[in-house]
Amino acid sequence: RALQEKAHREETAHLQELILAGKREWELTFDTVSDPVFILDDECRILRANRAAAETLGLPFSQIIGKHCYEVVHGLSAEHPDCPHVLMRQTGLETRRDISEPRLNKIFQTTTTPLRDPRGGMRGCTHVMHDITDRRRAEDEIRKLNQELEQRVQERTAELERANQELDARRLEAERASGFKDQFLSTMSHELRTPLNAVLGFAELLADEHYGPLNERQQRYVNHIHSGGKHLLRL
Question: pLDDT (tens digit, 9 = 90+) per residue, 28-70?
């Protein structure tokens, strides 16, 4: 019996040492996580907080532990209906939400995971806050630049449309002017051809001496008339 008790004590001491070692390892891991981590009870009181949580809030642990999460983190006097902890208690499921904290001037991506007792009842939760302020501001800046670019494209498109309309108007005006020119030339051609044909016809009649003989000078003058008329007709 004495040997059994001694073995039992040694085994108990070994298990306790393992438990303490596991606890120290857990605490070391808990404190080295770069994101703020809180362990809350079912009434939203903070049971544990890591070093990143204290640094983010700018508070000592004495002003964090035992306080309600909505008081310490959000600066509220009561839970907000949209609080991830409230939603998690309603659904019993892990809840992820992006939360803006004006008091801290930061935006966090939060993950609230339920903690359950051996019988499956909810006894609290872990609440992890990942700072996405820089990412969100970069996204907002990109969105703003895209909107500005889209507006510039719309303005440029409108300018091009106005320019195209102006070009179309000028083209129509040029086509009308060209039509007027063609009409003018056609009219002038007709108005010139008619008398020129008469001049050429009478010159040919005179040159052929249908109305009497011509002397050498008269024949030369008639030929000049006929030659000039043909030249004008070609023009």
Answer: 667 788 899 999 998 889 999 998 999 998 899 899 999 998 8
Burial (Cβ within 10 Å: 0-12, 13-18, ≥19) of residue 173: exposed
Q: Give 156's contacts (C-beta < 8 A, 6+ positions apart).
A: none
Cβ neighbours around 9 below 10 Å, total: 10
**Residue 62 to residue 48: CA distance in whole angstroms:** 11
In the numeric block, which tokens belong to residue 119? 């019988």
Which ranges in 126-215 belong to alpha helices (H)?
133-207
This prediction has a pTM of 0.56
Task: State pLDDT tens for residues 64-94.
Answer: 999 998 888 888 888 877 788 888 888 888 9
Report the DSSP beta bridge partners of residue 128.
Answer: 37, 111
Q: For residues 33 and 157, what is the distance between their CA atoms, to the nearest angstrom?
A: 52
Tokens of 55: 């640094």
CA-wise closest residue to 49 among 71, 28, 64, 70: 64
